Predict the structure.
Amino acid sequence: MTQTAYRTVDVDGHKVFYREAGDPAKPALLLLHGFPSSSHMFRDLIPLLADRFHLVAPDLPGFGLSEIKPRDTFTYSFDALAKVIGRFIEVIGLTTYALYVFDYGAPTGFRLAMAHPERVTAIVSQNGNAYEEGLSEGWNPIQRYWRDRSDANRQALRELLTPASIRWQYEHGVPDTSLVSPDGSALDAWYIQRPEVDEIQLDLFGDYASNVALYPEFQAYFRAQRPRLLAIWGRNDPFFLPAGAEAFRRDIPDAQVCFLDTGHFALETHAKAIAEAIGSFVSA
């Protein structure tokens, strides 16, 4: 099945939307998106890999076309996102898989890997951070909210949810922005403007502190399990610095690190290069 299928599955009462392509008998690759995106970010990558892998790309709870449960019935935290995606994997029958993690997908995926290291065959981290040196000054307003959960600090983060800010995240650090389709950022902005999604995103900004607190545990997992890891990074990312990619080698000495001349959403301009790198890495 090289054509992408679009499905929704019930995961313990939580409807999760996902994209799927490739032969289920082939090695599985679980694709986990980031903020403020959805599985749509993998639209170019999936067809490039569908002849070699079984690809599964869910929308995280509260993102994309997955169910948006009210905040008074579901706590939007990274622990909760990982719990739902962990059960999603079991419900659709994935037993082993390689991980492709990006942005929010990294702390989600690393939680899955720590919980069940025997399931993870390899990790591809595309601008998916696990080290404090990878955090840029772009995190300063969010870190201010971690330290002081005042309403003023929370409201100040709304600027990150505007269509202009989302578009900036797609274009910053890209040498030729005419190569960045307007569709991805426009879709992300539309998703965020739905009722209560802004508050969900602000909740997750606050809870991102839990990911930084877990960095030592993620790193201990890397040292203990030594997963095969490829860090492929847009070197001009305004949020996650190249030092975050290089740091993987401290805990996994044979990790492969590759930098691309682009920004945060590297797939927008380098899907072919990333697909080639994944093909070579996972099959090696």
Observations:
- The mean pLDDT is 97.
- Residues 5-139+211-283 form a domain with the Rossmann fold fold (CATH 3.40.50.1820).
- DSSP finds eleven helices and eight strands in the chain.
